[in-house]
Amino acid sequence: MLTRQRKELLLARLHQDGQIVAKSLSEELGLSEDTIRRDLRELASEGLLKRVHGGALPASPALGTFAERQRISSDAKPAIARAAAAMIEPGQVVFIDGGTTAVQLARALPPELRCTVVTHSPSVAVELVEHAHVEVILIGGRLFKHSIVAMGPSALEAIAQIRTDIYFMGACSLHPQSGVSTGDFDEAGIKRAISGMAQRTVLLASPEKLDTASPYQIVPLAQLSAIIVNRDTPDELVAPYRGMGIGVTRA
């Protein structure tokens, strides 16, 4: 079998099964495990999948640019945002992450809501300018242009001083085995710090993020209080999280 044919087969099986186990597939195809692993490494370098121990998982399309991500799941994100907004109680201090779904969450806040929103996203902060009863605390630092959020030591220092009731986390990927992950090492650390200061962490999981993996883990699944998904999400995709005791809200 030619290299091109093997790679096409690997991508087809990944699409069909949602994962590749190198050892099992090598036995099935009569190929060496080293050959399968080499093909997976090359496909990963092209951004077509995510290498994990023993095989591969789908790569997240949420690793694209901010403008590209705005066009993904454009119908699902406002619904997820409205469900998240409904979780906020008057007087709470909440942290809204950066990203396209987080911007939709800011837009979904009721105009009469009285609360404090902490964010390191200038995009989220600007959306809240007209909310007369929402106090906005904007955390500064170096601008990470992929997600349009502040990062760096000054951001981490500020985050460590604020305890929040809920952290609405955006992420590139969510998978039952790989947990919550993103495509940037420093961004993973920032999100981990925010989650560590929150009583509850709620993940905003638009459809393209489910059953995918990105290079850097943010938090283990046990740290999630709830996940908000689109109402059309198949039961088999959310069943593993319910089995772990994580609340799943369909929007």
From TrEMBL:
Stored Gene3D superfamilies: 3.40.50.1360, Winged helix-like DNA-binding domain superfamily/Winged helix DNA-binding domain
Signal peptide interval: none
Superkingdom, natural source: Bacteria
Segments forming domain HTH deoR-type: 3-58
PROSITE patterns for this protein: HTH_DEOR_1, HTH_DEOR_2
InterPro entries found in the cross-reference section: Carb_Metab_HTH_regulators, DeoR-like_C, DeoR_HTH, NagB/RpiA_transferase-like, Tscrpt_reg_HTH_DeoR_CS, WH-like_DNA-bd_sf, WH_DNA-bd_sf
Bilayer-crossing regions: none
GO MF term (any one): DNA binding
Keywords, comma-separated and alphabetical: DNA-binding, Repressor, Transcription, Transcription regulation
Protein name: DeoR family transcriptional regulator
Taxon lineage: Bacteria, Pseudomonadati, Pseudomonadota, Betaproteobacteria, Burkholderiales
